[in-house]
């Protein structure tokens, strides 16, 4: 039942229809509030008790919540209010809350939303292994997860994720500096068959052992980011070329031990690689693709 609308204080013209007189679930929620940014909803709920009830009903039915829509910074109390009744979320992005978001803030939200498929926690350094455990335990349909720049993510935390998230396809572990080869090997063996996209960028402890195991266990891998993985070399890249037939992009910038011969096989397959080949290699590649050798004055 819709709450009783508050009196505005002025007389209403005969036959006039006020906004809150419109059907809430058939008109206002799907066609009006669904188009109002979250930042404006925070203001709208202050207008009256009836508007507050309408906004709360809308928030309870959210499928996607991105804190960036509220602003670059969101107060802790505002996040708690916005998500207190949400029980059907499928996508959750909380990067703007990175300075203060704790396990106590996040775990109850995860517990109320077992249908979550996409979660972005990039930079949320105040969380702990407990939050990731709650996510793995309570959200079995999880497909996409960003933990970039979360230094608290270690091998034990990643094991729980690998064991309990069978639908996981995309994982961002950029700058999770506690992770070593052993943790990535375990992830590959447990979840590799379903992985489509993985970032291990800026992880100095990840090397060829992890990359080779990923290659052998991830036949559907399409995107791999190894930027700044200083221990990755040509052996790992050659294994990727051999075992990953659908690979579409590879990032190896600042991987100083990756030589061009190991990348050339991937280039010929059309894989997007973020480092340019040497001039001679580029000319050979162009000849193979175009069927002729362009004239270039190498003495210039």
UniProtKB/TrEMBL annotation:
Subcellular location: Cytoplasm
Record bears the keyword Cytoplasm: yes
GO cellular component, one term: cytoplasm
The F-box/LRR-repeat protein 15-like leucin rich repeat domain, residue ranges: 114-262
A Pfam cross-reference name: F-box
Gene Ontology biological process terms from the UniProt entry: SCF-dependent proteasomal ubiquitin-dependent protein catabolic process
Cell membrane is among the record's keywords: no
Main location, first listed in the record: cytoplasm
PANTHER family: F-BOX_LRR-REPEAT PROTEIN 15 (PTHR13318:SF179), PARTNER OF PAIRED, ISOFORM B-RELATED (PTHR13318)
Family: Belongs to the FBXL15 family.
Subunit note: Part of the SCF (SKP1-CUL1-F-box) E3 ubiquitin-protein ligase complex SCF(FBXL15) composed of CUL1, SKP1, RBX1 and FBXL15.
Protein name stated in the entry: F-box/LRR-repeat protein 15
């Amino acid at each position: 039942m819709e709450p009783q609308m508050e009196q505005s204080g002025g007389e209403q013209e005969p036959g006039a229809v006020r906004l809150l007189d419109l059907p809430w679930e058939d008109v206002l929620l799907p066609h009006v509030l669904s188009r109002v940014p979250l930042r404006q909803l925070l203001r709208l709920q202050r207008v009256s008790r009836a508007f507050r009830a309408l906004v709360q009903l809308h928030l309870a039915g959210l499928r996607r919540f991105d804190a960036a829509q509220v602003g670059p910074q969101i107060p802790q109390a505002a996040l708690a209010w916005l998500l207190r009744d949400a029980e059907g979320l499928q996508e959750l992005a909380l990067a703007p809350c990175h300075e203060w978001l704790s396990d106590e803030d996040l775990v109850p939200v995860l517990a109320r939303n077992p249908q979550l498929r996409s979660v972005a926690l990039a930079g949320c350094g105040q969380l702990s292994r407990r939050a990731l455990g709650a996510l793995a335990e309570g959200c079995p349909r999880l497909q996409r997860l960003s933990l970039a720049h979360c230094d608290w993510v270690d091998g034990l935390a990643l094991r729980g994720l690998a064991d309990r998230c069978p639908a996981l396809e995309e994982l961002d572990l950029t700058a999770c500096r506690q992770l070593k080869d052993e943790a990535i090997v375990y992830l590959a063996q447990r979840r590799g068959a379903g992985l489509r996209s993985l970032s291990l960028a800026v992880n100095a402890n990840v090397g060829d052992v992890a990359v080779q195991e990923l290659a052998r266990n991830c036949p559907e891998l399409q995107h791999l980011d190894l930027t700044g993985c200083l221990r990755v070399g040509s052996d790992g890249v050659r294994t990727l070329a051999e075992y990953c037939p659908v690979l579409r992009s590879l990032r190896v910038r600042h991987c100083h031990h990756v030589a061009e011969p190991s990348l050339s096989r991937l280039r010929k397959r059309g894989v997007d690689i973020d480092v340019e080949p040497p001039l001679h290699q580029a000319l050979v590649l162009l000849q193979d693709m175009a069927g002729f050798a362009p004239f270039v004055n190498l003495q210039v």
